[in-house]
Write a structure and sequence with these properties.
This protein is about 50% helix and about 10% strand. Helix 1 (about 1-60) runs parallel beside helix 12 and helix 10 (about 310-325) crosses helix 11. The longest helix has about 60 residues, at about 1-60. The protein is built from 12 helices and 11 strands. Helix 2 (about 85-90) links the parallel strand 1 and strand 2 (about 95-105). The chain has 2 domains: about 20-60; about 65-380, TIM Barrel. It has helices spanning about 1-60, 85-90, 105-110, 135-150, 160-170, 190-200, 230-240, 250-260, 285-295, 310-325, 350-360, 365-380, and strands at about 65-70, 95-105, 110-115, 120, 155-160, 175-180, 205, 245, 265-270, 295-300, 330.
């Protein structure tokens, strides 16, 4: 019995100690998992903080611009002004300058709501309604007044000059640039263009969805025509006044003709590249090269056709690789189309910034694409004054 007693002792110890050891491990395991989770969360917070600081530093050095937009659908809807919530949306997105476009061809093709609430059905192709002299210009002035009311209410600053935008940026305010999408509303008149400049219009897009007295557009029914004599006069007068020329929607010949006539760089504000997605509204590589050769800028948009922010960035990167980062911009076409989900109706410009950074773009490349290039071009064009 003596021998058995001592032989049993190690067994007793094992039976007693094993559960004790397992119990300690069981208690320690959740602690280690908790510490790992906390470390991961802390790391993610540090990464996020670093990203925020990096973006803030880029934004401090560059003007961020949405170079084509229709906030609150002021261009077609029956609204008094651009809503304060739309301006706040831009502020949250770090956008300093918004180009607010009136689609002046709507006076001819419809697709808008009158002040009495009645809708004018939209025509397609080159079909137009009969319009009396002065009617299209009056339509244009009415829509531009909606931008002005937003400015007069104190919700935004009038982007009359690059200096005005820089001053507004310093105080954290958004600037609105009144602009035309389609110069149809000028009614072929350089005098009307001068009038609009005096009212604060600083960008004119020559074409929209209908061929006009200025040139031909890039969508069906296709037309090989280029810039007309009226178009040449408008381009020259825009140059003299210091108005930015936008060739978006123009066909190849109109693009080439306008570049030859213009004394200053031009923009093609909202588009994609046909090399990645063959759409009527997108640009051929040769068109991109022609615009860049004149020191111009091509704006890439977050259209739903591109599906993801990464694909939008790949369109931007195609332009960068083809002609250089100095010729890239972004344009939302806000309230004028359907968007990539990550951008959405809430206009998530931060998703574009993150997409560029995730793609490996440098701080300067991000700043230039997000508005620096367009702002530089505007400074050059407006230097005439």
């Amino acid at each position: 019995m003596w021998t058995n007693k001592f032989l049993l002792s190690p067994l007793v110890c094992v039976l007693v100690c094993l559960p004790l050891s397992s119990s300690v491990q069981a208690k320690e395991a959740p602690v280690r998992i908790y510490e790992t989770v906390n470390q991961k969360l802390a790391h993610e917070k540090d990464m996020l903080r670093g990203r925020e600081q990096r973006i803030a530093a880029i934004h401090e050095r560059y003007v961020f611009a949405d170079i084509h937009a229709h906030p609150s659908r002021f261009h077609r809807a029956n609204v008094e002004r651009i809503g304060a919530e739309e301006v706040a949306l831009y502020r949250r997105g770090l956008i300093d300058l918004v180009v607010c476009n009136v689609s002046t061809d709507a006076a001819f093709q419809g697709g808008y709501v009158k002040p009495d609430g009645s809708e004018v059905p939209r025509l397609r192709g080159n079909d137009v309604y009969p319009v009396a002299p002065g009617e299209a210009f009056a339509f244009t002035l009415d829509r531009l007044a909606r931008v002005q009311r937003t400015i007069d209410a104190g919700d935004a600053v009038h982007a009359t000059s690059p200096e005005a935008v820089l001053a507004a940026k310093q105080s954290g305010r958004v600037s609105l640039m009144p602009a035309l999408e389609g110069a149809d509303g000028l009614e072929s008149s350089v005098e009307n263009l001068r009038d609009l400049y005096d009212r604060g219009v600083r960008l004119v897009q020559l074409m929209h969805f209908v061929d006009n007295t200025i040139g031909s557009n890039q969508t069906p029914p296709y037309d090989e025509g280029g810039l007309s004599d009226v178009g040449r006069d408008i381009v020259r007068e825009a140059n003299r006044l210091g108005i930015v020329l936008d060739l978006a929607h123009a066909n190849t010949q109109t693009i080439i003709d306008a570049i030859k006539i213009s004394s200053y760089p031009v923009v093609f504000s909202h588009t994609g590249v046909k090399a990645r997605l063959d759409k009527d509204r997108h640009l051929e590589d040769e068109e991109i090269r022609a615009i860049a050769a004149a020191d111009g800028v091509v704006g890439i948009w977050p259209t739903a056709d591109l599906e993801t922010i990464e694909e939008m960035v790949r369109h931007i990167d195609h332009v960068k690789r083809l002609v250089g980062i100095d010729h890239v911009a972004i344009a939302s076409d806000l309230r004028g189309m359907s968007y990539i989900d990550a951008f959405g109706d809430e206009a998530n410009f931060r998703a574009i910034i993150d997409g560029l950074l995730d793609f490996g773009y440098t701080d300067d490349e991000v700043g230039k694409a997000m508005g620096g290039n367009f702002f530089r071009l505007w400074q050059q064009v407006s230097s005439v004054q």
